[in-house]
Amino acid sequence: MWYFHVILETIYISCIHPGIGGRLCGRPGFNTDLIRPDAEKSSMSRFAAPAKNIEKLVANSFRAINEGAYEHEGDDLAHKAVSLERAILSSKHAALITEVKFSSPSSGNIRSAKTEPTLVAGQMTRAGACALSVLTQPHLFDGSVANLAKVRRPVSVPLIMKHIIVSRVQVDAGLRAGADCVLLIKSVFDRGLAEEDLDFLINYIKKHELQVLLEAHTSEEYVDLIKQNHRIVGINNRNLDDLSIDLSNTERLIAAHGKGKSIVVAESGIASAKDIRRLHQAGADAFLIGTSIMASNDIEAKVSELHNAL
Q1: pTM score, two decimals?
Q2: Total domains present in the chain
């Protein structure tokens, strides 16, 4: 059934969103061949696409926009952004950015999507999380802008809008839902997959007085970001093309290129206090952690364990 589901989703995207962009950008020539007919069933989660996963993630972003997922109808929670930089630098122990997410392409269902996000957020912040990353993508992640708005009300720590951002439409929704920071994945823009270009969106986000967490995976992406002195740079240990994890990616990039003037956030694959200490020794200033916490039987205890690793 998993493969049938992917085929139906691909047909939907190809028909409704020619070139992925649909009514937003209509990119001719974009690779809509998101599945391979001869692909064998993978040992990965049924959520993972047989073709390059990043293209599927981008396609789902446009699909969510066209379905109205970012038409936030609740209260306008826009506010003066809480500083993510200050939260990281002032953390007395490991600076954890913990993630409120219920599913992922690599792990499938992690926790019931019926779980109240405010309950999870409260457990995380009580245990020492200096910031929260809230998934807003409905497809494959079971996230929503509504979840971001729900979490905003009871917590005072910085909130990152976590999604595959391709358009200012998503940024506008995050602003209204109370985000302090927006994550942008450099490879999405380098490959020309987004509606906007990277510099435009960075300026657009800053114009609205939000902060930006810029994510790199490859050496080229990372060097480009630190040379431009972006203040907060994430190194993703996950390859978004095949979803593989390699914690040494953070170690390699910092060892080879330093950090410049950037605060560096190690992302993905972090599951233990040992991982935290390893990445801290490599030079990471903060740690974005999702699955290992959300999959834990005791979220508060798991966050506390990781927070007190340093």
Answers
A1: 0.84
A2: 2
